[in-house]
Amino acid sequence: MEPRKLKRIGVLTSGGDAPGMNAAIRAVVRTCIYHNIEPVGIMRGYQGILDKRFIGMQSHSVSKIINKGGTMLKSSRCPQFKEEEVRRQAICNLNEAGIEALVVIGGDGSFRGANALYEEFDFPVVGIPGTIDNDIYGTDFTIGFDTAINTAVEAIDKIRDTADSHNLLFFVEVMGRDAGFIGLYTGIATGAEQCLIPEYHTDVDKLCQYLVNERRKNKTSGIIVVAEGDDAGSAHEVAAQVKERLPHYDTRVTTLGHIQRGGSPTCNDRVLASVLGNGAVEALMKGWSGVMVGQTNGGITYTPFNQACTRHNLINKNLYEIAHILAL
Ligand code: ADP
Ligand code: F6P
Fold first, then answer.
1. What is the pLDDT of residues 252-262, one digit of tens each?
2. Same domain flag for 161 and 237
3. Quick one: how far is CA 24 from the chain centroid?
4. Quick check: is 133 catalytic?
5. According to the model, what pLDDT value does residue 130 have?
6. Would you state the pLDDT for residue 168?
7. What is residue 213's predicted lDDT score, i.e. its pLDDT?
């Protein structure tokens, strides 16, 4: 691939926001400026291309955002971007604004849109994985995951205090519509009795047997972490099924919800976002396109969008087994 001389690169955030997206925007902007490329911020994801919401960025435009949650460029869902005619209009708008390449920060849905721009119009585009779910193939961790699990762990530790004091059995729902990374990591880190995640079938009878087994027979307090997408239902539904079978348990339910998506990013997320933001611009300069930049085993990797969109990060089976072994 021939190196590409670029004059102007656009950057946008799309789909569900994640802590660390600002750090990634900052890295893209500053890397561009370092290489004498003009960075252009695009507001509200793909919708901003259609609405021509392009903002010239300077180094100071991204000052003091590395520690901020959310995204200064805002995010949106833009369903009409799934139509080819709409994407054609987007390409016209980008050409008109002199934007020669794009960095898309988002999840697999956003990469499907990015891949369409690359495949249909040969437009240079590189993706950066930003989602708290950690379910994107081609990177060990996505931007936002580390912050989300630390937020959830802090909350569950607090719930544990009151659960112990009052002998309550808590069902704590964490995010993860399709993926159990948040559930598994927070379950292990908080010493949860069980973590129920979408990747493994939940048998409520077995869960109840575990709760009353010989080792636990005098214990009526505890924490069950339930990922949003678990096949036994929401935390409320699982709690109701357990209560029906074990009425002597005093159960409570807490849904952590969107607090997991906000807040100041952790050090790990800031560093990951900085590395990937830099890697995305350097890839575009090398003439690469249609790929997502990730970090695997400490090194920078580039994965074609068609793999990043269609495959998923798999839960480490060993980690899942350890969670069970340690929850005696
Ligand atoms: P995430 O990027 O977090 O997975 P979504 O799945 O909501 O979030 O996708 C974000 C946006 O990406 C969508 O609102 C839409 O604009 C665009 N998008 C998603 N899927 C496609 C697709 N198949 N073709 C084109 N654009 C898409
Ligand atoms: O993609 C991240 C995520 O937090 C999922 O885990 C969750 O199901 C979803 O976003 C909720 O997003 P929204 O409230 O925007 O629909």
1. 999 999 999 99
2. yes
3. 13
4. yes
5. 97
6. 95
7. 86
**Both 22 and 123 in a single domain?**
yes
Probe target for ligand 1 pocket from 13, 89, 105, 110, with the most ligand atoms within 8 Å of CB: 110
Catalytic residue, candidates 51, 108, 122, 133: 133
Note whether residue 39 is domain-resident.
Answer: yes
Ligand at shortest distance from the CA of 129: 1
For residues 185-208, give the mean pLDDT.
96
Which tens digit of pLDDT belongs to each residue from 154-178? 999 999 999 999 999 999 999 999 9
Tell me the C-alpha distance between 18 and 281, whole Å: 20
Closest ligand to Cα 179: 2
Q: DSSP alpha helices (H): ranges in 7-137?
A: 21-34, 45-50, 84-96, 108-121
* Interval 42-63: pLDDT, tens: 999 999 999 999 999 999 999 9
Whichever domain contains 73, its CATH number is 3.40.50.450
CA 303 vs CA 49, 247, 307: distances in Å? 25, 50, 7
- The total domain count for the chain is 2
Q: How long, in residues, is the chain? A: 328
Asked whether 290 and 90 are in contact (CB, 8 A), the reply is: no
